[in-house]
Amino acid sequence: MTHIDRPTHTRSAPRRDVLISGAGIAGSALAFWLNRHGFAVTVVEKSGTFRSGGYPVDVRGTALDVVERMGLLPRLREQHIDLRRLTFLNGDGSEAASLHPHAVTGGAAGRDLEIRRGDLAHALWTAVRDDVEFRFDDSVETLDQGDHGVDVTFRAGGSRTFDMVFGADGMHSATRELQFGPEERFQRYLGHCFAVFTMRNTLGLSHETLMWNTPGRAAALYAVGDEDEVHAFLNFARPVPPSDAFGGREAARRLLAEVFADAGPPVEDMLTALRDADDVFFDAVGQIRMPRWSSGRVALLGDAAHAPSFLTGQGTSLALVSAYVLAGSLAGREHAAGFAAHERTTRDFVTRNQDLVGKGGALLFPTTARALAQRNERLRDLSSAPSPQPHSAHSALVLPDFGVR
Ligand SMILES: Cc1cc2nc3c(=O)[nH]c(=O)nc-3n(C[C@H](O)[C@H](O)[C@H](O)COP(=O)(O)OP(=O)(O)OC[C@H]3O[C@@H](n4cnc5c(N)ncnc54)[C@H](O)[C@@H]3O)c2cc1C
After folding, report:
1. Residue 13 above 60 pLDDT?
2. What is the pTM of this model?
3. In which region does residue 61 sit, left (phi positive, over 0), alpha (psi from -120 to 50) or beta (all else)?
4. Residue from 178, 303, 317 whose mutation best tests the ligand 1 pocket (most atoms within 8 A of CB)
5. 148-154 long-range contacts, CB within 8 A, separation 24+
6. Which end of the chain is less packed: N or C, by CB atoms within 10 Å?
7. Helix (H, G, I), strand (E, B) or coil at 133
8. What three-state secondary structure class fits 97?
9. 172-229 per-position pLDDT tens digit
10. pLDDT tens across 278-334, in order?
């Protein structure tokens, strides 16, 4: 049943009615900023409530200024995970290299945030839930735009007209499909597939990641604290995406069991846990690259517009920055000028961060024995190098000041 949270108070005479599809990171952040700029905001989310689960995500560089301007930085700092060690192991369990995670991610120690995705989603949602209307357990069925606005029908019933519609519905965005065409047109497959799920912390890991690599395969356990559960991660190379395995959880499980069949004890335990896990997330590693992020009165943001892939670790930061700039660019402008201003401001920043992918993929998941040996050599060099420089791409945009906090 659709559950609607209505605003408990309204701001003075909001002029434009807008709809956001997706209450994830990008959607909630955009709702926050559009509300601040005086828009009447409705958010439609297909889940029954905001999604609390998930792996840890990074907030870095320019995106830290966004959460600071939202007043969320102190709370998020308290929830910082503080991962201390990243250990790479060979297939037989012997150590290949051990180093601080920032040496690999190009993060800024002491400044960047790494937090559970659910903690960030909750902080964003609580910052805005009293001011905008959330329609949970619902989604957009049809979009029909004209000069007067966008006519929307909802899956749970009913229709409304909005001045603008925003697709913040993630990598596999239904808004993109409805308005811009099929995903294949915009997806850039990066040659790997991955699964994440939680399992018992049988190795007693604490604030650390262990990653086993063999050519073309990786398995990792990620302990965010001293908890009883860890995030398990399985990644494997495939020149062509195994489309059959995206059809359902069982198909994905079967494929993973086949790919990792001879992988040895720690991975065997992961495969056993995978059989019982109820939170398996399986997907291709890919990016979304689009020539334009808007069409008429409909615009995309976050992963829907420009997913950079987890190999860059920048998906969350791009989502936060695009939400802030998009809302500010629309304040006092009509939609076409606002969307164009947003693209002018953020396009380079987004591209620079998407381009980080070459480095991440090659470093973490080599596909040949030779490339793996070279990678391990590089990791050992990195571990003895002085403090690494953060990637300049993370801070490549200075946030405009739109006069609203
Ligand atoms: C394994 C993995 C590891 C990652 N690691 C990192 C990392 O280390 N650092 C990092 O920064 N990022 C990481 N990311 C990426 C990061 O989670 C996303 O890039 C980021 O959350 C982008 O936010 P978003 O709001 O655009 O999309 P999402 O967070 O995916 O939110 C989309 C929302 O839309 C909703 N939705 C979907 N379809 C519909 C529909 N039809 N109608 C209504 N609602 C809908 C969904 O339920 C969801 O709430 C990782 C991702 C994965 C999969």
Report:
1. no
2. 0.92
3. left
4. 303
5. 149/17, 149/297, 150/19, 150/296, 150/297, 150/298, 152/19, 154/2, 154/44
6. N
7. strand
8. strand
9. 999 999 999 999 999 999 999 999 999 999 999 999 999 999 999 999 999 988 789 9
10. 888 899 999 999 999 999 999 999 999 999 999 999 999 999 999 999 999 999 999
Q: Where are the domains of the chain?
A: 3-77+116-186+289-356, 187-286
CATH of the domain spanning 3-77+116-186+289-356, picked from 3.30.565.10, 3.40.50.300, 3.40.640.10, 3.50.50.60 = 3.50.50.60
Residue with tokens 């829907």: 304
- Map tokens 């998009």 to a residue: 326
Q: Does 174 sit in the ligand 1 pocket, CB within 6 Å? A: yes
Ligand 1 center–CA 319 separation, angstroms: 9
CATH code, residues 187-286: 3.30.9.30
> For ligand 1, is residue 67 a contact (CB within 6 Å)?
no
Task: Tell me the C-alpha distance between 304 and 309, whole Å.
Answer: 12
